[in-house]
Every structure is written in structure tokens, then in C-alpha cells.
């Protein structure tokens, strides 16, 4: 994740005064750290990843940055298996950085998870410039285009595409 993308995440978390954030795709914890820095001091990040090793590494990184252990909740598993178990309207922000083939499914779950005024963010929607390339594209890019169209046309979302990093698609739930 680029520093610019991280700074945007931190600012977006602060802009919704995030107390409860769900993250799809823990990775090595970089995005989680930016989110935690932008969240309220009493906020909790719930992060989902199918790789327990990723979560262990992120746990260590959060601790090294001085975050208390109760600031992050790590749930191992596939996002589409875990998300249905999370509370309806219980989140201020949902950050999606998992399997891009599942982004449309993440959107449906995010709309259920977010409170009105909450924010959903998708990372990597430019797909290294392939989403605007007119040549035939792989399924991942076709799904990203579909996601962009769905978010743009949704009456329950106010979207914006931020040109930082590999693209952040952001939308506020009405």
C-alpha cells in the first residue's frame, strides 16, 4: 500500500469518526495500521483473512506501533463465510482488500454491515490501469468494472473514485 493510499484511509476513517471498522484482507497489517490511526481512540478494527500467518504478523505489527491488543479483533476465515456473522448496521467503515473476484459480494455484505452514513472502500479498482483499457480483459477486471457500475448506479450510495495508489472506490451509505 502506498503512503498516499494509507493517508487517504486514515483520513477517511477519521472523517466518519470510526469506532467500528471491518477490514477484509488483513495482509501484513499496513492498511489496518492506517485505519487504526484514523479511528477513535476507543475504536476496534475487526479484520478478516483466510491466512492465520498474515493475522499473526499484523498482530505483531499493531503491537509494535503501540496499539493495545483490544483495538483489533482478528477473525480467520474466508470473508464470505465470516461477514454474515457480523452485526447488521454495526460498522462505521468497511475496507475491502480481499479477493477482487468477490468484490460485488463484499459490497452486498458491506451494505448490511454499515450504519447510515457509513463508508465502504474498495482498494485496487484501477487494476494497474486495466479497468479503462479497451482490450479484452480477465475476469477480475470485468468484475471490477461491474462493481464500479453498480456503485455508481446505486441509489443508496454516494460514490467517489479516488486516484491514489491503484485506486480507491469509496461510497457513503445513505
Task: Itemize the secondary structure elements and their pairings.
Layout: H1 3-15, E1 20-24, H2 30-38, E2 44-49, H3 52-64, E3 72-76, H4 79-82, E4 91-96, H5 103-113, E5 114-123, H6 139-153, E6 157-162, E7 168-173
Helix pairs in contact: 1-2
Describe the overall structure.
- The protein has a seven-stranded mixed beta sheet with strand order 3-2-1-4-5-7-6, with helices on both faces.
- It has a single domain (3-173), classed as Rossmann fold.
- Helix 1 runs parallel beside helix 2 (30-38).
- By secondary structure, the protein is α/β, with parallel strands linked by helices.
- The mean pLDDT is 96.
- The protein starts with a helix and ends with a strand.
- The chain is globular and about 45 Å long.
- The protein contains six helices and seven strands; from the N terminus they run αβαβαβαβαβαββ.
- The longest helix has 15 residues, at 139-153.
